[in-house]
Amino acid sequence: MLGKNCVLILIGGGHAAGKYTAAKQLGDEIEKNIDGIKNNIHLIDLKSFEDSRHGSVCKENFNALEPSHIEPEKEHLRPSRFNFSLLKQDIAQICQNGKEDDDKIVIVHGLYALYDKELRNMSHMKVFITADPDTRLIRWIRRDVINEGQQLSSVISAYLNGARSEMRDFIFPTREFADVIMPRGAELNAIKLIVDGITPLFKSSKSLLEELTGPGTSNHLRPSGEKFDRQKGEFYELN
Question: What are the strands of the beta sheet with 104-109, ordered from one edge?
Answer without folding.
Answer: 41-45, 104-109, 6-13, 125-129, 180-182, 236-237
